[in-house]
Protein: Heterokaryon incompatibility
Amino acid sequence: QQPAPSVLNGLSAAISDAIQVTKALGYNYLWVDRYCIDQSDPQEMHSQINQMDLIYSMSEVTLVAAAGTDETAG
Structure:
């Protein structure tokens, strides 16, 4: 099942693609650093970045945007 188009409005192609892949694989949760870490709080960012090994070690799947020049590439 594809996410409703209104959910994807305003998101980059990479994030929209990640949502679609996550749902297609049957998962309900997606961690996106940009949205899951408070980018306006330097202390929070530092704390979360220092724990990325724990965050990613608990994941079922890790999606990496390996092509394109930025997040709009999809």
